[in-house]
Write a structure and sequence with these properties.
The protein has a five-stranded antiparallel beta sheet, with no helix packed on it. The N and C termini lie far apart (82 Å). The chain is built from three helices and five strands, in the order H-H-E-E-E-E-E-H. The radius of gyration is 28 Å and the shape is rod-shaped. The relative contact order is 0.09. The chain has 128 residues and is α+β, with helices and mostly antiparallel strands. It folds into three domains: 44 residues; 47 residues; 33 residues. Helix content is 56%, strand content 23%.
């Protein structure tokens, strides 16, 4: 269909070539740039307490980050290892904010008695 149209009109052939070039640009240039920006954002947001996986497959928790040297210290089961920040493959879990952790702990304390009360109510109902 396109070949027949291109043979009959040279302008159509030029339009098809331009469309192909635009498609190649978006698939070969634009996508890697977005991935690079995403990785750079991840590197800039690394902080103490994040669980990460290195490109070599080592799981660890970030103990410290040195932006001047571009290095991180990982705690892997009590063994502290220094890596280039570029060695981080991906962040497995983000460190919880201290305030949010305290809030969830308080919520758990409040929810626990409610569960005990429900069990006690069930036991009373069974006794009757």
């Amino acid at each position: 269909m396109f070949v027949a149209a291109a043979n009959s009109n040279p302008m159509m052939m030029i339009v098809l070539v331009v469309i192909m070039v635009v498609m190649m640009y978006f698939s070969m240039v634009r996508a890697p740039k977005k991935q690079q920006e995403k990785r750079k954002e991840m590197m800039n947001s690394l902080k103490k307490g994040d669980t990460v996986v290195t490109v070599g497959g080592l799981y660890g928790v970030i103990d410290s980050v040195d932006p001047k040297k571009n290095t991180i210290v990982l705690d892997s089961n009590g063994v502290y290892l220094t890596f280039s920040a570029q060695a981080v493959g991906h962040v497995d879990k983000r460190a919880a904010a201290p305030k949010a952790a305290a809030t969830t702990a308080d919520d758990a304390k409040v929810d626990a008695p409610k569960a005990d009360d429900a069990k006690a109510d069930d036991a009373k109902a069974d006794d009757k």
